Amino acid sequence: MTDDAPFPTNGLNDTVHQRHRLGILTIASESDRVEVSYLREALELTAGNLSRHLAVLADADLVAIERGYHGNRAKTWIRITPAGEAALDAEVAALRELLDRHG
Amino acid sequence: MTDDAPFPTNGLNDTVHQRHRLGILTIASESDRVEVSYLREALELTAGNLSRHLAVLADADLVAIERGYHGNRAKTWIRITPAGEAALDAEVAALRELLDRHG
DNA sequence: ACAGAAAGGTTTGCACCGCAAACCGATCTG
DNA sequence: CAGATCGGTTTGCGGTGCAAACCTTTCTGT
Q: Which residue range or ranges hold the Winged helix DNA-binding domain (chains A, B) (predicted)?
């Protein structure tokens, strides 16, 4: 009861912790850049919803958005930023700490 | 790219995933019953904020609220319900799956 | 060549949520 | 018995998450 170390959930950043954004960052951290359309399918999101989450992440400078073309089709990719990597690492560390409490 | 298994974050339940509620449920799962005032300190929450989260969890039948006295002082405890345990286990399982992707 | 349909996103509108300030009823304390 | 304290709830509001509606460009059929 004299445990005054901060509880793991206090280390979580709300911007990163949101479940879809956690998914976006996780996938983004696994490869150099990711097609938005791939994210949409992998995370089973509506395009609108995904768009807003990407805007939130871009505003927070956790991902960078790159527009371009695939053939003649407009296409968008995202790339995780160094700040995004750091924030994700912090989240993962806090979650590991939390999970340690669950045996 | 033909990975059509649902992404781990899709298995997360928003009621449970919220960071403070995740903390509440985690602590509640670790002992039989917990004083609300202990939660307040451990999670560094304002009383008002905590009260609302507990109401959400109680509404969802994930915790039960027990009112009583400690000496003459009114005091409240919470106890995780079987549904709460199950929901927390599901969250933890999904998080483990997610963390597995992070090496 | 022109009318849809489709691809690939963005914006809008609204309900719900998270938060702390304000509040409430009891119980101690001088 | 006036004020401080404990233990918690309610209120008010800005912010968030969501899908429907919308926009632009590119295919496709005729």
A: 21-99
Residue A20 with chain B: CB contacts under 8 Å: 9
Number of domains in chain B: 1
pLDDT classification of A1: cutoffs 50, 70, 90 = very low
> E-strand spans in chain A?
34-35, 63-70, 73-80
Q: What is the pLDDT of residue B34?
A: 93
Distance from CA of A29 to the nearest CA of B (A): 9
Assess whether A76 (CB) lies less than 7 A from strand C: yes
Q: Which residues contact A17 (CB under 8 A, 6 or more apart)?
A: A91, B17, B19
Flag whether B36 is in a domain: yes
pLDDT digits (tens, 9 = 90+) for A34-86: 999 999 989 989 989 999 999 999 999 999 999 887 777 778 999 999 999 99
Residues of B with CB under 8 A from a CB of A: 1, 3, 6-10, 12, 14, 17, 19-20, 22-23, 26-27, 29-30, 38, 42-44, 92, 95-96, 98-99, 101-102
| CA–C1' A2–D21 (A) | 55
* Phi, psi angles (nearest 5°) of residue A102: -100, 35
A100 domain-assigned: no
